[in-house]
Design goal:
CATH class: Alpha Beta
Low-confidence stretches: none
Structural class: alpha/beta
Distance between the termini: 22 Å
Mean pLDDT: 95
Order of helices and strands: EHEHEHEHHHEEHH
CATH architecture: 3-Layer(aba) Sandwich
CATH topology: Rossmann fold
Strand content: 15-25%
Number of strands: 6
Shape: globular
Length: 198
């Protein structure tokens, strides 16, 4: 049986799996098998931990099948995939954060943490867990991580909260949150696909 390279994609707070499936459908021709997984950011389940466990169970299932597994998180999904990577770094091939907040960052002024996480306590928990967990990563772990942010500004996520020192931190030549995510997954997807295939 052929070993697949499963790429688990996690959407943002909207949990819009259909749009994400559409955006990454072309990745299959590059030898990647997209799997879109909904975290359920606003499903009423306040804690992030059971959401993370379901993602870990999915990763474990694919690994047990003998598949290679990579993770791509968009927006709020960025902290979710990093948290999963921190728990399963020996099982995960690569992980990419696309315009996702990985650190608390500004707590006042423009794009403060509280206002950007108020609709999902699970997302707030995920970001805090991620910021703390990143400190445990070593040089070999960081080589498996890529981050992507908008070159010309993101009205929802401050760029300094999307990057990880020591990882491959890149930009898409766009502005605006949704446009930058969509562009990174479609017209500017080559660097992401190449990174996963290395």
């Amino acid at each position: 049986m052929t070993k697949l390279h499963r790429v688990i994609f996690i959407p943002g707070l909207s949990d819009d799996t259909k749009k994400l499936e559409w955006a990454v459908r072309g990745w299959k021709k590059h030898g990647l098998e997209p799997v879109v997984h909904s975290i359920g950011w606003r499903d009423g389940e306040v804690s992030f931990k059971p959401k993370l466990q379901r993602l870990l169970n999915l990763i474990d299932k694919f690994v047990e099948q003998g598949d290679q597994v990579s993770l791509v998180g968009t927006s709020a999904g960025g902290s979710a995939v990093l948290n999963a990577f921190i728990k399963r770094k020996d099982s995960i091939h690569k992980v990419i954060n696309v315009c996702g907040r990985l650190k608390v960052g500004p707590t006042s002024g423009f794009r403060p943490f509280q206002s950007k996480t108020q609709t999902s306590p699970a997302f707030a928990e995920s970001v805090k867990l991620c910021e703390n967990g990143i400190k445990s990563l070593d040089e070999s772990d960081l080589k498996k991580i890529m981050t992507v942010h908008a070159m010309f500004g993101d009205e929802l996520v401050p760029s300094e909260t999307t990057i990880i020192k020591g990882a491959l931190n890149t930009k898409v030549p766009t502005a605006e949150h949704i446009i930058s995510i969509a562009s990174a997954l479609t017209i500017f997807s080559k660097p992401l696909i190449d990174f996963l295939n290395r």
